[in-house]
Amino acid sequence: MHALSVHEVARQCLQAFTRLMPVSQAAFYCVDRHLEARDFQLHGMSGEMHRDYLDNYRQFDPLQPRNCLSSGLAVVPLGFAMARQPPRDTRRYGDFLRRYGVVDVVEVLAQRAGQPQAAISLLRTADQGAFTGEQLAQLNALQTLLQLAVANLQPTEDALAGLTPKERQIALLLRQGASNKQLAQELQVGLPTIKTHLINLFRKTGVSSRTELVGSLFL
C-alpha cells in the first residue's frame, strides 16, 4: 500500500474513531523522536481551546507521549495517567479540562519499534460521561486500526533535525513561552548570544517572529 500523508491518515483515523466511539472532541497528532506531539489535526475542538492547551497547560498534561510510553499501555485513561503525576500538576490540568467542560480523556497510541509514532486523543463532556470499562476494551480493539494506519504514514522530516543542539533547546523553551532573559539563564549565556541564536533560528526556518517559529516547528 502506498504511503499516505499525515493529513490523510489523520482524517481517516479521526473519522473512524469518532464514528465508532461517541466523543465531543478529538485530536490526531504525530510524535517526533523527542517524544513531543506535533502536526495536530483537530475534530470538534475549538482553536481557542487548543491554543490555551499549547500555551498554558501542555506541560501539566499527564497524557503527553512520554508519559503514555512509560505507562506501558496502548490505550491510556486520564484517571490512570493523573494518578502517576504530582497532585499539583493534576489540579492544574483538571482546571483546564473543567474550563472547557471535559470530564474524561483517553489517549490511543500507535508505536513503531517501541516508540510512539502517532496518537489520538478522545475527549468527552458531561452529557456523554466518562468512558466505561467496556468502551476502553473497544478502544483497545480499535487501536489496531490506528497501528495499521500509522504503518502507512508517509515519513516526514523532523522539523528540529536541521538545528544545532542549542537551537533545539531554545526552540523547545520558546514553545513554553520563555523570554530572552529566561533563555539566557537556562543556557547560562548572555543576551547577545541568545539574540544571535534567535537570528539563526529565524533564518533557518524562514520566519520572522517567535510566534511564527513555534508554529513552524511544533504546530
Number of helices: 10
Q: Give the strand order, joined by hyphens, for the main sheet.
A: 2-1-5-4-3
What's the number of domains?
2
Distance between the termini: 28 Å
Strand content: 15-25%
Query: In this structure, how is the largest beta sheet organized?
Result: 5 strands, antiparallel
Q: Give the overall average pLDDT.
A: 89
Classify the fold: give the CATH topology of the largest domain: Beta-Lactamase
Would you identify the regions where 5 or more consecutive residues have pLDDT less than 50? none
User: What structural class results from the helix and strand content?
Assistant: alpha+beta
Give structural notes:
The protein is α+β, with helices and mostly antiparallel strands and 219 residues long. The chain folds into two domains: 6-151, GAF domain (Beta-Lactamase), CATH 3.30.450.40; 165-218, Orthogonal Bundle (Arc Repressor Mutant, subunit A). 52% of the residues lie in helices and 18% in strands. It is built from ten helices and five strands; from the N terminus they run αββααβααββααααα. It has a five-stranded antiparallel beta sheet, sandwiched between helices. Strand 4 and strand 5 form a beta hairpin. Helix 7 (165-175) packs across helix 9 and helix 9 (191-205) crosses helix 10. The longest helix has 19 residues, at 133-151. The chain is globular, with a radius of gyration of 18 Å. The chain starts with 5 loop residues before the first helix and ends with a helix.
